[in-house]
């Protein structure tokens, strides 16, 4: 599963899409890799808010802790039934919507890999199912739930984000644990709905994906 996503949309359109309040000073990073700021939606007392959180929970690593080394970010949730995620699954306060328009995978030969971007037809703004928390090490952070790829992504990776469409946002933010498990292991966006944009941009560059026409 790639560790890169982007938001190619204006902040006003994002706020309107999620019906979320925007604090002063909020920014949209051009692209986000693990350990760097991204854009999320949290919900408190029935109101949604856009926030800049860092991508990646502190990774459990006893050896590094014993040496006094800084902990590394863990940005992906590979299995929502793993016991380490139990409290986040059970408590809706730890859930968030990770804002994105595209995610990317490296494509091509090692040493010459380029960025291939993925988005969803007719959905210029998307949400990735996420968990969030406040940490002593990194401050407010998030991690994204992944699942088996849907076919369109298979040439570059066997995993992909759990993409949520607008009618699924409430179910993710408020649903029971069984609902979250369904999102990871149940049906996902059909392969024919995925837009694949292969680029010549090097993987470690900052090349951005093309915007979809606004349908907001």
Description of the structure:
The chain has one domain (4-202): SOS response associated peptidase-like (hypothetical protein yedk fold). Helix content is 16%, strand content 39%. The chain has helices at residues 11-18, 62-67, 86-90, 169-174, 177-185, and strands at 4-6, 20-21, 31-33, 37-44, 47-55, 57-58, 73-74, 76-77, 95-100, 102-107, 114-120, 126-135, 139-148, 159-161, 163-164, 194-202. The strands form 3 sheets. The protein has a 5-stranded antiparallel sheet, with no helix packed on it. It has a 5-stranded mixed beta barrel with strand order 4-5-13-12-9. A hairpin with a 2-residue loop joins strand 4 and strand 5. The two termini are 29 Å apart.
**How large is the radius of gyration?**
17 Å
Write down the secondary-structure element order: EHEEEEEHEEHEEEEEEEHHE
What summary fits the major beta sheet? 5 strands, antiparallel
| Second rung of CATH, namely the architecture | Alpha-Beta Complex
Strand residue percentage: 35-45%
> Which class in CATH terms?
Alpha Beta
Strand order, largest beta sheet: 3-1-10-11-16
Properties at a glance:
216 residues; alpha+beta; hypothetical protein yedk fold; five-stranded antiparallel β-sheet; five-stranded mixed β-barrel; 5 helices; 16% helix; 39% strand
